Amino acid sequence: MSSRTELPVCETCGVQFDRVDPDECPICTDERQYVGRGGQRWTTVAEVSASHRTVVREEYPGLWGIGTEPTFAIGQRALLVPGDGGNLLWDSITTIDDAAIARVTELGGVSAVALSHPHYYSAMVEWSEAFGDVPIYVHESDRAWLPRAGNIRTWSGDSLEILPGRTLINTRVHFAGGSVLHWPGTDGRGALCTGDIVQVVSDRRWVSFMYSYPNLIPEHPDTIRRTVALLENVTFERIVGAWWDRVVEEDAHGAVVRSARRYLEHIGVAPGF
């Protein structure tokens, strides 16, 4: 691991920074996140990796997840999305250790990293550097949230194919750069990796959309309509969310449309689709 594992990491959101105001994390003081009740606290990738382990296991056959045990910060797990041109690391986590690097290398390594939104930036630069300083893709609308310098490539517009068959789609849910990843899936029926941009909920037949999850601020109706429109002609049978086992296994496209309609009806506006 690089010597930069000693850079500051926020204990609440898990994001690593080049430099910070010791009294506040810029991500956690935003209304979409929160400062822990005990006040701002900092740690490092090295400290967290010493007390936690990085686990690599199949989310379902052919798709591997990378997570942290016991859970840390927001608790998301990353995904190693396979395909021609190498694996894509979708989203990131704070921990990284030699055993995880070795296991991911056995699975084909990492050719690129892509992020859904700033809450999951975590130790993305450490992961990039561990696999040869591979490019990190972040939508340009979230450029102001970048916490560290690295091999970061901002992209613009509604979509971008970054590796063969793996295409980012900017829905603007949660953050202006909030994006999801479309790929063929392990069975060719199509899958959408969404982080919590399209949130897989406890009833796996449904999803939801929020501007802030911890503070329960709803997403704007126009943004939800935009998401439905952008995904209208995208084929996907599965949605893979941000945490272990948060997967819509079938009729995922239908789940997005039904869920968006239900959401808009409950906040008292016409779906418009």
Can you walk through the features of this model?
- It is a single chain.
- This protein has a single domain, classed as Metallo-beta-lactamase, Chain A, CATH 3.60.15.
- Strand 6, helix 2 and strand 7 form a beta-alpha-beta unit.
- The longest helix is centred in the C-terminal third of the chain and has 15 residues.
- The N and C termini lie far apart (49 Å).
- It is of the alpha+beta class and 273 residues long.
Which tags fit this structure?
19 strands, 6-stranded mixed sheet, alpha+beta, 7-stranded mixed sheet, single chain, Metallo-beta-lactamase, Chain A, 273 residues, 5 helices
Radius of gyration: 18 Å
State the end-to-end distance: 49 Å
Helix content: 10-25%
H-E string = EEHEEEEHEHEEEEEEEEEEHEEH
CATH-derived architecture: 4-Layer Sandwich
Give me a quick take on this structure:
With 273 residues, the protein is of the alpha+beta class.
Give the SSE layout.
Blueprint: E1 8-10, E2 42-44, H1 45-51, E3 53-60, E4 63-69, E5 78-81, E6 88-90, H2 98-106, E7 112-114, H3 124-130, E8 136-139, E9 152-155, E10 159-163, E11 166-170, E12 179-183, E13 191-195, E14 199-200, E15 207-208, E16 210-212, E17 217-218, H4 221-231, E18 238-241, E19 247-248, H5 252-266
Parallel strand pairs: 6-7, 7-8, 8-9, 13-18
Antiparallel strand pairs: 1-2, 3-4, 4-5, 5-6, 10-11, 11-12, 12-13, 14-15, 16-17, 18-19
Helix pairs in contact: 4-5
